[in-house]
Design a protein that fits this description.
There is one protein chain. The chain is of the alpha/beta class and about 525 residues long. The chain has 21 helices and twelve strands. A hairpin with a 7-residue loop joins strand 4 and strand 5. The chain has a six-stranded mixed beta sheet. The chain has a six-stranded mixed beta sheet with strand order 6-7-8-9-10-11, covered by helices on one side. Helix 2 packs parallel to helix 5 and helix 7 packs antiparallel against helix 8.
Length: about 525
């Protein structure tokens, strides 16, 4: 291993401790790349220590320690779930901590698969196969977003999206493409430290420089271009900031309604095309109170604009969490029922086995999913609606746009996570959806971050977090289809082919094959 950096890392304990210590260092860097710190480039640096020492490890050890290191990264990302479970879920701290730790350990399996795959490729093909690390990562990241209902909360691509120039490239291959770029950079650095003179090293570094340079240059130009909304349509959104422990309190119902009404009627003379209320903003189920429905219709009539509000309602098989469109002429303009529910937040998977988690959903709701992704027709355009957590699924939003969505609308309630990094992480993930799909995003949050994001990922209008507010902005319905919308994750076939070819005995990719017999190594 060449260079001063390599010699420095080689002094880290015994041979058997270098890789685990490197993964711990990576977890620290990973944590610093997340909000509230948000040093995005450290997500690239987080992979360098582990990849640097990976060639010395067997696939089995790489999987074992990669599992532990990945679980640590997940715990650093998701620790803020603990106070939420304690405060609102009726879960004691001694139970909440193991639940989040268990989730982190489960998600750590994807990291284990990643490190094991790369270690296997290196053993087969030589150290140059470190350049296959981004191929392995994106395959495992895709699996993470789909297996067991999926949980794609954060990834290195989101950290790179903190840089506006790099964010623009999400319109090509999605946030998973940014993850590919992040891990490619880390692999090139690790290989450069290990084998500076190898042809594969030079090729990897050159490829990384070209991709980063091209992505940054194109993204810089794209980020600076104005988005010309035609036609210019005014929309409003509320951030009522109703405390979570007050929302369903019957004694607070009148005060909650008064706040929603007051914030809404501030738009009397704005000529809005649409007013958006946040997730579950109503103190009663939509179907359960005629007076409440009449009150919302009265506001819509006074504003001469439809109201899209988050609420719960009776659906096939049980209650659903979703949105209702209330037009000014009365009645309903359509409903959307959340299709991707939050495990342990809106339902308990494996209910009989995980009986101890039932108090959590009893405190927040137990719902059945919807089955339609069709947009709701509004004067501001065909609205693809997501409820809270749904917007972290790139494929779901992509399918909504392919169904005809012209604007994105997200209704959320991040008051659950007040005082933690959760709302910032959530908002930044949703911002990427606007760029991936080339759509305006209207986000109404009860607590958290509310605003309007344009198709370049720029915040056009925003309410101050933690304060009741009504804001407005300009959007335009769009019908364009980005490359991501057209092909989605189909491009992942290419990384899969490269990983398959790593199993074929082609000439080695730089450095000796680490599982080659001594006679083979010494022969001319």
């Amino acid at each position: 291993m060449a260079g001063t950096v390599g010699r420095l890392f080689e002094r880290l304990g015994s041979d058997r401790l270098r890789f685990p210590l490197a993964l711990v260092a990576g977890a620290v860097l990973w944590g610093l790349s997340l909000p509230p710190y948000g040093v995005g480039i450290l997500a690239v640096a987080a992979f360098v220590p582990g990849l640097l020492f990976l060639p010395e490890e067997t696939p089995r050890r790489a999987a074992s320690w990669g599992w532990a290191g990945g679980a640590l990264c997940e715990a650093v990302t998701l620790w803020w779930l603990v106070p939420t479970m304690v405060r609102y879920g009726g879960i004691a701290p001694w139970m909440a901590i193991p639940l989040v730790a268990g989730l982190s350990v489960l998600l750590g399996l994807y990291w284990a698969g990643f490190y094991a795959t790369v270690a296997w490729a290196v053993k087969r093909r030589g150290e140059g196969a470190l350049l296959l690390a981004p191929c392995a990562w994106v395959v495992w990241e895709w699996l993470r977003g789909h297996l067991l209902t999926g949980f794609p909360w954060w990834g290195p691509g989101y950290s790179l999206s903190l840089y506006s120039a790099l964010l623009q490239n999400a319109r090509f291959l999605g946030v998973i493409g940014l993850s590919f770029l992040a891990v490619l950079g880390a692999a090139a650095v690790a290989l450069w430290i290990r084998e500076r003179g190898a042809p594969s090293t030079l090729a990897g570094v050159l490829l990384s420089v070209l991709l980063y340079g091209g992505a940054f240059a194109w993204g810089t130009v794209q980020a600076g271009r104005p988005v010309s909304p035609m036609p210019r349509l005014a929309v409003g959104y509320l951030q009522p900031n109703i405390r979570q422990d007050e929302k369903w309190d019957p004694e607070e119902a009148d005060r909650t309604w008064t706040r929603l009404e007051t914030l809404s009627l501030a738009f009397r003379k704005f000529g809005l095309r649409l007013l958006v209320w946040p997730e579950s903003c109503t103190p009663v189920a939509w179907d359960g109170d005629e007076a409440y429905r009449s009150g919302v219709a009265s506001i819509a009539r006074e504003l001469s604009a439809p109201i899209l509000l988050g609420t719960t309602f009776k659906g096939p098989g049980g209650f659903q969490n979703g949105a209702v469109l209330v037009p000014p002429e009365g009645g309903e303009g359509g409903r959307y029922a959340k299709t991707h529910l939050v495990p342990f937040g809106e339902y308990v998977p494996l209910r009989r086995l995980l009986f101890f988690a039932r108090p959590l959903v009893e405190a927040v709701g137990d719902f059945v999913p919807g089955d339609s992704l069709r947009p709701l027709s509004t004067p501001a355009g065909a609205a693809s609606v997501t409820i809270c957590y749904e917007a972290i699924f790139p494929g779901l939003v992509r399918r909504q746009v392919r169904e005809g969505g012209e604007i994105l609308v997200n209704l959320t309630n991040d008051a659950w996570y007040e005082g933690t990094p959760g709302p910032a992480q959530h908002f930044l993930m949703e911002r990427v959806r606007a760029v991936e799909t080339d759509r305006f995003l209207i986000r109404s949050a009860n607590g958290g971050i509310s605003g309007i994001v344009d198709p370049r990922g720029r915040l056009q209008s925003a309410a101050t977090p933690g304060e009741p507010a009504s804001f407005w902005g300009i959007v335009a319905p769009r019908k364009t289809e980005t490359l991501w919308v057209k092909v989605g994750a189909l491009w992942l076939v290419a990384p899969l082919v490269l990983l398959f070819l790593a199993a074929v005995p082609w000439p080695r990719l730089g450095g000796r094959r680490l599982d080659a017999p001594a006679a083979e190594i010494e022969s001319p």
